Amino acid sequence: MTDYWPTAELDTVRRLRVLAAGIPGAAVTERVFDVPLSQVWDFMWGDGRDFAVFQTDMTSIDWMERNEDQLRMLVRSRWGMRAYLQGTFRFGWCWLQSRFLLIGMAAAPEPGGGTRVALTGGVRIPGRAALVPIGVRRESTKSLNRLEVMLQSPPHP
């Protein structure tokens, strides 16, 4: 590479938008909360177990393994199905996928204050880099609604 190539720094929400744009059927749902990023991310992730509380279609995390920014977990859906998710996790960023499922979450500070949260995900089409486009925005909106209620509740332990 040469020193003359331009570089662009993307915050986590913009990075999620770029990745989702390359996946047919993916939709990004966003909302701004008048709460600092650290508090929002604590409710979205916490020790990792809060992920199943925040994501409306998850009921439990059966196990989780983390090695630096790499994450593997076995989750159970509200429909009883299990998914072995693996991917990348950093503060304000989580991108997980299994054979049939994709979950992307990002949170970044807003220039005027507060935190922007962006979600994407859905059921993957086997053999293709695509998502079934049914219900993607509805589920993300439910998760953001749940997060809003969580953020209005008493402080997180």
Automatic annotation (TrEMBL):
Record SUPFAM superfamilies: Bet v1-like
Domain of life: Bacteria
Protein name in the entry: SRPBCC family protein
